[in-house]
Specification:
Helix content is 42%, strand content 14%. The chain has 338 residues and is an alpha/beta fold. The chain folds into 2 domains: 245 residues, TIM Barrel; 67 residues, no CATH class. Helix 3 links the parallel strand 5 and strand 6. Helix 1 crosses helix 2, helix 2 crosses helix 3 and helix 7 packs across helix 9. The model has no long low-confidence stretch (mean pLDDT 94).
Amino acid sequence: MKMIPFGRTGMTVSATGFGAIPIQRITAQESTKILRKAYYAGITFFDTARGYTDSEEKIGIALSDVRKNIIIATKAHPRNYESVMENLETSLSMLKTDYIDVYQLHNPDYIPVPGDKDRMYDAMLDAKKAGKIRHIGITNHRLDLANEAVDTGLYESLQFPVSCISSEEDFKLVKKCGEKGVGFIAMKALAGGLITNAKAAFAYLRQYENVVPIWGIQHMRELDEFIALENDPPALDGDMLASIEKDRAELSGSFCRGCGYCLPCPAEIPIPMAARLSFMMGRSRYEQFLEDDWAAQMERINECQQCGHCKAHCPYGLDAPEVLKDQYAKYIEFKRRV
């Protein structure tokens, strides 16, 4: 397993990271098998969050006995000093540890600094002095805020969506992090599952020595694929570049990454899936989406209450109701044609 320095933290981490959002959807027994195999394969970097239901707890169950050998990054959506501390204590308990290696403020809508009104950064500093966190990080989906966070010099890591179809401006941010010694964690390295050529995605990001992609893993076969890629790293060849260009053409502009910040929906519309269904139908077995259950799910789009919650909470600035209308029209047309 390739190991790389993680910014200016002094830590060395596996160049392949484990993204633990998907283990929410499997049993503790299944997740333990996957997490243990990842560990024995040489993966040392595990990213989770307080908001990922039981993800932290499953990591604690599976890896607490090898805690000193791994790097745990977790995060929370605090509102103030007190909630930073409350979330941190819960994470420590769930993870069965007395310290977090990288504790991240989770997608704030401004960049916290010492002495501001909410005192969230002050809480991070106090937690660090107490030995409960080792390094202070931040996550964001907005390029302007991500750049601002790096420019403050206050954060030792940044988690930001980067993949092989990302823009030139996104990769300028990657370079800036390298220059300033900020550890760079790449979320959405498969664009929320819309990039299906994992080999090409892996090879493209491997060009950037300071990037730690956190591949979202739910099934053993997915872990096996990334272990195989790590054991025999592919060269970025012409076929891969052609595949990447095809994805860029199809996914250019704004599209739903499936992050889920738009939820909950009062009409129970499964927004993260429904808002990108036409892409998914073109990239996987489409028959599953034509079954009665999915048809009923898509029909809920017509029950949209125009509450504005999804639009207000989309970190990419998408007009979610309009995106859903467009996806519903494409879905109906597809059904008509097949």
